[in-house]
Amino acid sequence: CVLCGRTDDCPAKYGEKRTYVEYNLTVHYYCLLMSSGIWQRGEEGEGVDGFLITDIRKEVNRAAKLKCNICRKKGASIGCVAPKCKRSYHFPCGIQRECIFQFMEDFRSYCWEHKPVQKIPDKESRGTSQCTICLDLVEQLPKYTILKSPCCKNAWFHRECLQYQALSAGIFFFRCTVCNNKDKFQKEMLRMGIHIPEKDASWELEENAYQDLLQCYQHCDIRRCLCKKGRDYNEPDSKWEIKRCQCCGSRGTHLACSSLKSWEQNWECVECRSIFAKSGKYSKRKKRSMVTSEKTDGTTCLLEEPSPKCPRQSSGSQCNFLLQSPKIMCQNNLSPCSHLELPTSNRVTMSLSPLMSNRNWSLSKKQLRKQRREVSDILKELKLQVNTKTTRLNINAENIWNSALKGFRQRNFSPTNTIEIKFIKCKNRSKTDSSAASRHHFFQLLMLHLQNSSLFEGSSAKNLSLDFQAIKENLYFEAGKMIAVSLVHGGPSPGFFSKTLFNCLVYGPENVKPALEDVADVDVAQTIKMIKYANSLSSLQSTVHDCYEFLAAAGCLRPITALCDKNALVNDILIHHVIKRIISPLESFRQGLKTLGVLEKMQMHPDAFSSILCHKPERLSAEMICDLFTIHSSSDVNKVEGADFWMGYLQDVESGESVVTLEDILLFGTGSFSIPPIGFDPAPTIRFLHIRYPVGNRLLNCLELPITKTYEQFKNKMDFTIRNTLRVERE
């Protein structure tokens, strides 16, 4: 190299070594970049990446007069940029002496005495941790060879590991290996001398790197394969079609080899079944598959019915009935439509997602509470992304949607910033309200508006509607984003999602089969009912003829040759109207819910999130309020009956023997009408003090209650203060 004089060819350390025979020139790329007296004065294709050959010659002549402060040889082209520092050195010598070279902006260099160092707070624990790249142990000390992540508290790396990772990942994929932070992480690594090349990742540049992933597993692994053409034979839409394991996808079976009557039936390989059996989950899954595979009469219908001889199953029964393919019915020489001729009163139909076929949505209160506690922990984990930087939203409560939309779309809005709400043109907000209470009230008004907006349709359980103006203005994305932000920032949950909408978000629309109650349009619902309950082939054909234009527009026209064809037709109409018709709004809504990682957590914990998205908040009870508030008492209060008075008062309020409600008590103490899914921060507390009247400290979520001699005094003071305080606020 004409600049450092070394013959080493180590691209990871010194950059690519390039030789230009026509100019009789060899140079390391990093030596050229970091040299102090040269700039890229040419175009990208000129000279050496924009460095003109004449400029390189001049830089070599300039460096020939400078002695390296490390090896004491001439040719030191790099100087320390610290004021008054006159040290010069070769690039390899600087690496050896642990100098810092910043591959950004002006390509500054710092000698071993003036180099930047990472500042570690004294209170942080010192010890050893694991480098998350090479997985070897690393000392938690700020040294040249060891770097700390700026975004994760206990993430430490070897410098060499980080440099290799950066060269491989490039500027588009180099990020913290623990939290995936990109901007903050790259900025700190560049400051500490890690070179991040402006190129795509190495794995993206490799030709056909992902070719293996495009190959589907096509092999029958059943011990006794029945196919005469071999285990690898696969004929779609026949009994010799290969079905892959629904769990791992790495095992397969011919439909005939496992007695599967339809490709839509679920199948699990032996390995996955054994895993579920050990975890205790297989018994539930086995019950689910028995409904589809074990039929007493060998028939398979679109709307499966219990035998008339069997007692009718209750709506909460564990034995739900699944949608099946109509193709199988017509292939059997049995009577596929006999069940459909039962009276309507004897029908028990439930059409859920294949993945949700046995899920019981009538959850008990105990289950709901358990799942909501799980959601609270998940949301608290997501809230760790929120920083202390605040973004103020000026909200007009009388025009909640437009002011919220304006705030969410302002340039400085970030979901990771702490949101501060200021109500304008609103005189009934208490000046004592905490920022959390104002924020909760804002999100409560916003969720109420969304529930009644044109973006959703239905009565209580809602699906997405088709609003072309909303699609044009990207409002479905904004709605999803607002719901995600509300959940993480301490607001209420929507609570109005239908089962079908929730399943589409979590499992994907292709895995969901909607029900008749999902159809909000009265005319469409009536059309479906007429087709569904047609009791003869002639009446079915007449109904289809009357609805010809509607079916043609929906793309649901099909030949009607048997009464059982109505089942497939009903299924087609439901899928078109409830799912395919709103596929664009659904995808936009899903993208909005990805904000702060909410959708990902929904997909990981579907049961827990369904408890808050598909169910309204549980009505407050004395027990819930008692559990919510923690009593803090001093030594002189232990002797009084304050705690007993408090619990007795809650019982009286719940039974209606007070002028206030449990919601009033919660509002008085916290400024919120309901308990948010994430819970309160700080946690609500109660203090018994020698004061005349109770005080609701909403900044601390603290109820300061008076110490009284009798329960009647306590009750009268509570009723009087809470009722009058809230009345004044409302007025």
From TrEMBL:
Q: Which domain of life is it from?
A: Eukaryota
Q: In which pathway does it act?
A: Protein modification; protein ubiquitination
Q: Which CDD domains match?
A: ePHD_PHF7_G2E3_like (cd15669), PHD_PHF7_G2E3_like (cd15496)
SMART domains given for it?
Answer: HECTc, PHD
InterPro entries linked: EPHD (IPR034732), HECT_dom (IPR000569), Hect_E3_ubiquitin_ligase (IPR035983), PHD-type_Zinc_Finger (IPR051188), PHD_PHF7/G2E3-like (IPR059102), PHF7/G2E3_ePHD (IPR042013), Znf_FYVE_PHD (IPR011011), Znf_PHD (IPR001965)
Q: Give the protein name, as stated in the record.
A: G2E3 ligase
Cellular component, GO annotation: nucleus
Name the gene behind this protein: G2e3
SUPFAM superfamilies in the cross-refs: FYVE/PHD zinc finger, Hect, E3 ligase catalytic domain
- Domain annotation PHD-type: ranges: 1-115
Q: What is its main location?
A: nucleus
Give the molecular function GO annotations. ligase activity; ubiquitin-protein transferase activity; zinc ion binding
Localisation per UniProt entry: Nucleus
Q: Which UniProt keywords apply?
A: Ligase, Metal-binding, Nucleus, Transferase, Ubl conjugation pathway, Zinc, Zinc-finger
